[in-house]
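Task card 7
Instruction: Convert sequence to structure tokens.
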Amino acid sequence: MATKSTMSKEHKEALAQGRREGAAVRRYLEALSATKGKRGRKRTPDSVQRQIKAIDTQLESCDALQSLLLRQQRKDLEAEYSRLSTRIDMKQLEKDFIEAAGPYGTRKKIDYSTWRDAGVEPSVLAKAGIKRTRRAGA
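Output:
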């Protein structure tokens, strides 16, 4: 019969620290992605609200198929409005990222260029202690 092994307090703390660091890195990268500029005219909560109102007007006098399509478009716009209206505290996310990215990147063997490919600015990487390095054989 196998005995049940227990984790040491240090091991549990290390796992918890890894989860915290991973969460900080994930939140920052997701925020970067969500706030990244896109091509074309910038959408605002007001412009999205105007589109929703226009759809509401069109729904009053359209056929069943068009109604279906407009209802889906309206749901998509409501989700976009919610996203645009939510304020992201990039300063706090960046601060948390700077604390976590160095140890997380070392543990996961993530190099400077990969962080850059993910959209992290060089100044943020410098604050996190992640230095630009050449890979062996590159």
